Each structure stands twice: as C-alpha cells, then as structure tokens.
Amino acid sequence: MNKKRWLLAAVAFMFSISVIGCGAQQSAPGSGGPADLTIGSKNFTENIILAHMMADLIEDRTGLTVRRTLNLGGSSVTWKALLNNDIQLYPDYTGTIVANYYQKETGSAEETLKRTRELVRGDGLEFLEPLGFSNSYALAVTPETAEKYNLKTYSDLAKVSAGLELGAEFEFTDRPDTYPGLKELYNMNFKRVKGMDQGIKYRLIGQNDLDVASAYTTDGQIKVNNLVILEDDKGFFPPYDAGAVVRSDLLKKYPEIRDALNELGGKINEENMQEMNALVDEGYREDIVARDFLVKLGLFQK
Question: For residue 293, what are the CA distances in angstroms to 151, 176, 276?
C-alpha cells in the first residue's frame, strides 16, 4: 500500500470510530466481553443517574453485563431506539408516554400508570414499578419577579406574559404536552420564547437575564437559584411518574431483571432526586451519585 492510500485508510478508520462514539456514553463496566443487554437514557442528568442505578442493580443481582449507551437525546430519540431494539430499556415517565408518544388523554397518577401499561404492551414493552417520584414540568421565576408581578399561579403569569421572556429546553417549545398546550389553555403568549440547553437556562435566570424558565420539579438548580415554582392552577401537566420501560422479549429471556429493577419501586422521592441532580450540577459524576444513593438505600455494597 502506498503512502497516499495508507493515509486515506487511516482517516477513514478514525472517522468511523468518531461516528460510532458521537452523542452517547457507551460502556459495559466490569467486563471486556460482549454485553447481554443495552440500557439507554435521555440527554439530561436525572435520566442518566436513573439509568446508572438500573444498570448497577441488574449487574449486581443477575450477573448480566449491561452496556450503558447514555445521553442519547430527547424523548423521541430514546423511544425510537427502544422500539428498534437498539436499546432494551431506559427510564421514562408515565405522562410523557401517554401524552407525547401515544397522544392519549392522561388522568390521575393511577389512571395514567394504567394507561401507560396498556399502551406500551401493544408495542411489546412493559412499564415496571414506579420509582416513587413524579418529575413534572413546571414554570419557575425568581422571588423578585414573583413579587414584582404578584405571581402565584400560571393564570397570574398568563396575564403579564406578553411582556416577559420564557427560556426552555428545545423540546419544551414544541411538544403538544408542553408550551403549545399551555399557550392554548392559559392564553399564555410570551414576548419571546427561547430554546436553549438546561444549563444555560438556569444560568440566565440566575443572572436575571431571563424572566421565566421551564423546569422539572426535581431539578437541583431550583434550590441553587432559590426559584419560585408557580402553581399549575388548571392542572395542565399530567403526572410524570418515573420508572423503567423495558422490552418484553428481554424480560422473557431474563425474568430476573424484573425483580432487580422492582427493588427500586417506591424508593426515590422528589427531594432525593433533586439532591442527586444538584450533586451532578456541583461536579460529581452521574454514575458515582447513582451508586452512592443505592448504597444509602441499602441496595448495594461498595
């Protein structure tokens, strides 16, 4: 092979490696061999922490090797990966599944969980025991903004929204169960709606460079920035109870996975999740935070 061909081959090889690794953290801790299954996650801290917890429990309880293909992207990306069998499980939320993936009506927490399980069963999936917390969408303002405009509810915010700017994740700006639906129900029309990454959003509102921010009720930055969560007085947002959504064929092959994951059922509350998210914001790694919490629960030994 001449020098030119060698260089071209080397460049092509490096490009292929970079494409494979782009956009996700991939690993199968504790083993250099092939993985028995692949867990995914969405592209935000909480989902990554939960995926690590689930992977740790599966490996510890079953001896199976789990490849962690994390930080895949938004809801539509992870859902498609699950249906395509590119991943076999990941953490998701009941309200997202019912309202966003299937465009069906939600209800109470119990009703939404029941509908979730009925809907996913038709696609060869199962939603296991809820983890114990609901990570709902919310709208947040600083105490100064709340006092200035006398804001307590979304209805209060709607009355003054024409003079305010909203900062939100890109997904929040176009999903029917987020801002478009809020806009219709509350007649909420902001002066400007800016799509941005989560970290930027909290930095801007913390600096008073943004009036309103979308938030998750378990975000660690709510406490860090001393933000006020407004009341969804018309009950627009459905329950978003967290849990593992898993391919049925995986559970048929390895039924012990169900028992391993259900050990987390009801073990995590909103305050726990908020604290874990805050630790990652402070610089701790998601996998370390996840493992430490399992140890704290008595479900794992260091």
Answer: 36, 34, 8
Nearest Cα to Cα of residue 237 among 72, 121, 100: 100
* CA-wise closest residue to 68 among 29, 31, 33, 34: 29
Q: What predicted TM-score, i.e. pTM, was given to this entire model?
A: 0.80
DSSP string for 138-180: EEEE-HHHHHHHT--BHHHHHHHGGG-EEEE-GGGGT-TTSHH
Q: How many Å apart are CA 159 and CA 156, to the nearest integer?
A: 6
Contact (Cβ atoms closer than 8 angstroms) between residue 206 and residue 228: no
Q: How many residues does the chain have?
A: 302
Q: pLDDT, tens digit, for every residue of 46-91?
A: 999 999 999 999 999 999 999 999 999 999 999 999 999 999 999 9
CA distance 230 to 224: 17
pLDDT number for residue 176: 79
Tokens 């859902």: give the residue. Answer: 79
